[in-house]
UniProtKB/TrEMBL annotation:
It comes from the Bacteria. Keywords: Membrane, Signal, Transmembrane, Transmembrane helix. The chain crosses the membrane at residues 44-63, 75-97. This is Uncharacterized protein. Residues 1-20 form the signal peptide.
Amino acid sequence: MVKKVISFFVFLLSWVSLMAQGDGSAGIAEATQMVTSYFDPATKLIYAIGAVVGLIGGVKVYNKFSSGDPDTSKVAASWFGACIFLIVAATILRSFFL
């Protein structure tokens, strides 16, 4: 009886491993297609975030300039750099992965 149960489980495990054989290329292709389909909306989202950051930065720089703050150029450069970074990062990531 014990031999039959052990034989059954050995057969079952070998059958499961045989049924699981495959190269997985269909799964890899599907995953690649899913990941690449996310890049266009993500790029547009990053561009929108860059636009909002640019608007906020423009208002902050204008307020500092209007009040006569001496470090206006430093603040303007940092906000401008943040906007440029967002746009360049989105473009490079999109061109690198697609």
